[in-house]
From TrEMBL:
GO terms for biological process: proteolysis. PROSITE patterns: PDZ (PS50106). Signal peptide: none annotated. This is Peptidase M28. It holds the Pfam family Peptidase_M28. GO terms for molecular function: metalloexopeptidase activity. Residues 358-416, 443-526 form the PDZ domain.
Length: 541
């Protein structure tokens, strides 16, 4: 990183690597029964074909292994390549090594004069490496999905591109042997698919990224295939240090629905994904973004070894690279096989600065309907005791006091905290509390006029213009059904009762009327979670 995509055929394709036998059970889960009957021979055939596609994609994803990742990173980050500086002896040697990978997989050369190299002038001659897997759909193959990674690094380091010490080989294991390795693994996985993706897939290894994105800028200005054929770009830069903070996902807002798509593809790896709004001119995605081409970049973050000789292979999380290469493969295949062509969101440009603040700003908290808190002392079935009453609240106005023991709500015994909270929120009109009060021989009845409207679910939301068929939660009422189900502000709801919804209007109608329990799925930091809302009656939010 610069400073400043018949079952027998599919199974036969698995033979070359014995390591694939270990995930046969996963393929069988995806394929299911081959004798599916869906009401007609045509429908059954379609279902069978879909299962075969799923099995092929699962096989491709699982062909990416930790051992292969380790082998490739070790090779690329070896001292032999002297830090892979653009135009240098080590950089040219690395290019020759990488071209052999393209040749072995028989990709179509789309560089200069029928080769894989695209030469350009920098530090003598620097070289991009470009190859193509042609799509299988007669129409859609004219559209090209590009996956790229820069293979150069900073050589021995010098002032301006190294944090030192200078004069030592900077092997760039994370920056960017990791991304290059991910691309090679994805390239092999797609090349071995029984049928190529519907759209063509171009693989690009950029040179001279470390000197100002020179290689990718050169290709975009002098493309070896018409630039208007490129519909999507995926960038891999520094994916070798996966840790607890997860993965930064850059550019998801450049294409409608991309966050939801990536999160759904993430269900197997279940990585923590930070979908950022920022887009910087710091890697090879930017020349494509500047041309209005939607993109996504995966990145595991900067670290103390960045642009230092200590960025070596022994510090790479190889299993993390494997997981990110798998997710990247699934992303490429999702886009390359989609019925609809990718579309660019111009609004993503202005969202870089103000988007998150505007779109994800939490809504003001809802005023308390009653204005009291309580707990239950230890002992043999003691009553709930009021611990505080909010000044000016309905409960204070009604005469409730701290220390009162809560006995009944509208004549019903209070014996379940969660249910009691739901009943308070859903209360409609005048509500009677019965309490036991110190100094009073008989229970005291307190009549409360709750503030606001009844609350059934306990959420507010808004629409995110980048994510159709999704609602973004802006608030969750404490104690509500939503709160008890684990929902939080900024969660994104994808389905209700197992089905997607068209828009916020349909969501509002469904959420207010569906009977309890309401099943839903939501996404938080790229992880999709299923939960149930245990709600009371009534049509309200």
């Amino acid at each position: 990183m610069r400073s400043e995509f018949g079952l027998r055929t599919i199974l036969a394709s698995l033979a070359p690597r014995c390591s694939r036998q270990s995930w046969m059970s996963r393929i069988l889960q995806l394929v299911g029964s081959a004798a599916v009957v869906v009401g007609s021979a045509g429908a059954a055939y379609e279902a069978s074909a879909n299962d075969q596609l799923k099995a092929a994609i699962a096989a491709a994803a699982n062909s990416i292994t930790k051992d292969e990742v380790t082998e490739l990173v070790d090779a690329l980050a070896d001292d032999t390549f002297e830090g892979r500086d653009a135009g240098s002896r080590g950089g040219r040697a690395a290019g020759t090594y990488l071209v052999k990978k393209f040749e072995d997989l028989k990709l179509k050369p789309i560089g200069d004069q029928g080769t894989y190299f695209q030469n350009f002038q920098y530090n003598g001659v620097s070289r991009n490496i470009v190859g193509l897997i042609e799509g299988s759909d007669e129409k859609l193959k004219n559209e090209v999905v590009v996956i790229g990674a820069h293979y150069d690094h900073v050589g021995y380091g010098r002032t301006g591109n190294s944090f030192g010490p200078l004069g030592y080989i900077h092997n760039g294991a994370d920056d960017n042997a990791s991304g290059t390795t991910g691309l090679l693994e994805i390239m092999e996985a797609i090349a071995e698919l029984p049928t190529p993706p519907r759209r063509s897939v171009m693989f690009a290894l950029w040179d001279a990224e470390e000197h100002g994105l020179i290689g990718s800028k050169h290709w975009v200005s002098s493309p070896t295939i018409p630039l208007d054929r490129v519909v999507f770009y995926l960038n891999l830069d520094m994916i070798g240090r996966l840790g607890k903070t997860g993965v930064e996902v850059i550019g998801s807002r450049t294409m409608p629905g991309m966050r939801k798509s990536i999160s759904q593809l993430n269900t197997d790896s279940n990585l923590t994904l930070d979908f950022t709004y920022k887009i910087k001119e710091d890697s090879d995605h930017h020349p494509f973004f500047a041309k209005g081409i939607p993109f996504v970049m995966y990145h595991t973050g900067l670290h103390d070894d960045y642009h230092r000789p200590s960025d070596d292979a022994d510090r790479i999380n190889a299993d993390g690279v494997r997981q990110l290469a798998r997710l990247s493969l699934l992303t490429i295949l999702e886009v390359a096989n989609a019925d609809q062509s990718p579309s660019y969101r111009p609004a993503s440009v202005r969202e870089i600065v103000v988007g998150k603040q505007m779109i994800e700003q939490p809504a003001p908290s809802t005023p308390p309907r009653f204005g009291m808190s309580w707990n239950r002392p230890e002992g043999d079935k003691p009553a709930w005791v009021v611990t505080s009453v909010t000044p000016g609240s309905p409960c204070e106005k009604a005469g409730l006091k701290s220390g009162d023991k809560l006995l009944t709500l509208s004549g019903r015994p209070i014996d379940d905290d969660s249910k009691f909270r739901l009943e308070l929120l859903a209360a409609s009109g005048t509500t009677e509390l019965t309490v036991e009060r110190a100094g009073e021989a008989e229970p005291v009845k307190i009549t409360v006029e709750p503030a606001g409207s009844p609350i059934r679910i306990g959420i507010t939301w808004r629409e995110d213009p980048a994510e159709p068929q999704t609602v973004l939660l802006t608030s969750v009422v404490p104690g509500s059904a939503a709160h008890q189900a684990g929902l939080e502000p900024r969660d994104r709801i994808y389905t209700l009762a197992g089905k997607p919804f068209a828009d916020t209007n349909e969501f509002r109608d469904l959420i207010s009327k569906l009977p309890s329990p309401i099943e839903l799925t939501y996404e938080r930091m790229g992880k999709i979670v299923s939960t149930k809302l245990n709600v009371l009656g009534g049509e309200a939010n």
